[in-house]
Amino acid sequence: MKTTIEISNVKHFISSTSYLKIDRLVIDTMQNILIKTKVNSGLSAFLKLLSGVVSPDEGEILIFGENLNYCSEAKYIEIKKTISYSYQHGVMVSNLTILENLLLTLNFHFKELTYSERVNYIYDFIKSYDINHHLDKRPVDLGFMQKKIFGIIRSCLINPRLLILDEPFQNLETKYCGILESLIERHIAKGNHIILGASLNQEFEFVNQTINYFPFVQQI
Amino acid sequence: MLKKIFNDLKTSYLGFLEFISFSIETFHKFATFYKQTNVSSLVLLRQILFTGYEALTLVLVLATAISGLLLSQFGSLLINLGQEQLFYSIFVKAITCEIACVLTAFLIVARSAPAIATELANMNVNQEIELIDSIGISPVSYLVIPRMIGVTVSCVVLTIYFNIASYLGGWLIANYLNPLPFSSYINSILKTISIADFAQTIIKSLVFGILISLISTYHGFQVKKAITQVPQRTIKAVVYCLSSIIIFNVIISLMFAIL
After folding, report:
1. Fewest CB atoms within 10 A around its CB: which of A99, A122, A217, B193?
2. Contacts B36 to A, Cβ<8 Å
3. Which segments of chain A does DSSP mark as H helices, in order?
4. A4-219 has which fold?
C-alpha cells in the first residue's frame, strides 16, 4: 500500500459561493504534519477530503493509491481502518451511549475480539484519564470538551496509521489539553503519524511550542 | 404558471428516480447485511422494540374496537336483510384482507415513519451519518437495512396479532350482544378464512412494511444541512407512506381478485 495522499485538480464546494481548489498536492503520510490555515478557509473540508470522509465535487484524490469511490469494499474498509478523522466538534452518534459509540468502531474493525475484550480494551485505554464515569452517559449529557475528547479517543482506539485531527486543541481546558497531549504522544509512540490542522494562531503556536512532534509545518 | 407546473413535475420525477436508486442500493446491500450484524443488531432490536412491541396494546385496543363496530353495524344490518349467512364471509374479508393490514400499516406510519425520518434527518444535520461513513460502516447497512427489517417484521407480526385480536375481541362483543358459543364462532371463522386470504394479508403487510421503512429512511437521508428541512421531510415521509399504502393496497387486492 502506498503511503501518500495525492490530490489532483480538485474543486470542492464548501458553501454555494465558496469552494476549495487544489490543482496538485502530494502529502507523504509517513511524517507528522501541522497544517496552518486562515480562519474560515475550509480547513475542515480539506481535512475531510484528505481522510476520505467526503468526496470532492470535481477532481481526484488517491488515498494510499486508491480512489475510495471506485475501490473494492475490502480495500475501502482497510483504508478506513488505516486513516481516522476526528471531528472539530466531537461528533457522536446521539442515540448511543459514549461506551456504545466507542464500541461501534471496535465492533466494526475488530470482529475477532469478544464483547468483554472490547469493553476491557476501552477501559484500559482511558483508565489514566479519569473519565470512565462518562461512559454510560449519552452525548447530549456531555459538554463540548468531553465530547471532543471522546471523539478523539474513538479515532485513536483502532490505532490508525494516520490520525487526522481537526483543530483538536481549540476551546479545550487545561485538563483536556493534557489528555489530548497524552493521546497524541501515545499514538506517535506506536509508530503512527498525525496530520493536525489549526486555524487559530494561538492553537497553532500552542501545538508548535508544546508538542515536539511536528518538524514539518505546511502553510496552506 | 405552465413553467412552474413543468418544474414541479420534473422535480417529482427526479425525486422518484432518486428514490428508486436508493431502494435498489438498499436491496443490493441487503445481500451483504450479515457482514455487519455485529454493529447493526442493536439498531434492529431497538427498531423491533419500538415499532412492534410498544405498539401491541394500541393494536389490541384498535382491533377490538374495529371488530366490535363491524359486528354491531353489519351484524344487525345483515340480520334485518335476512342475509346472516353472509356475516362470516364479510367479516373475514373485511378484517383479514383489508382492515388488519391497512390499519396496522397506518398505525406504524403514525408512530414510526416520523420517528425514523426525524431521527435520520437530525443525524444528517449533526454529521452523525458522515461519522458512521468515516468509520467505514455503510450508512445504508447500519441505518436503513435494520430499520427495514425491523419495521417489516413488526408490520407482519402486528398484522397477524391484529387479526387474532379482532376475532377474539369480536367474539367477546358478539357474545355480549347475543350469547354465542366460542367453539361455534371460531369454527365458522376458520371455515370461512382461506389460504388466499391469509396470503393476501401477509403479502400486503410485507409490502407495506418495506414501503414505510424505505420512504421514511429516504426522506431522512434527504436532509443535508438545514434543520428547517427536518419537519418538511417528515411531513413528506408520512404523506408518501399513506399514499403508497393506499395505492399498493388497491393493486394487491386487484391482483388477488383477478387471480
Report:
1. A217
2. 108
3. 43-51, 73-82, 98-109, 115-126, 144-157, 174-189, 201-210
4. Rossmann fold (3.40.50)
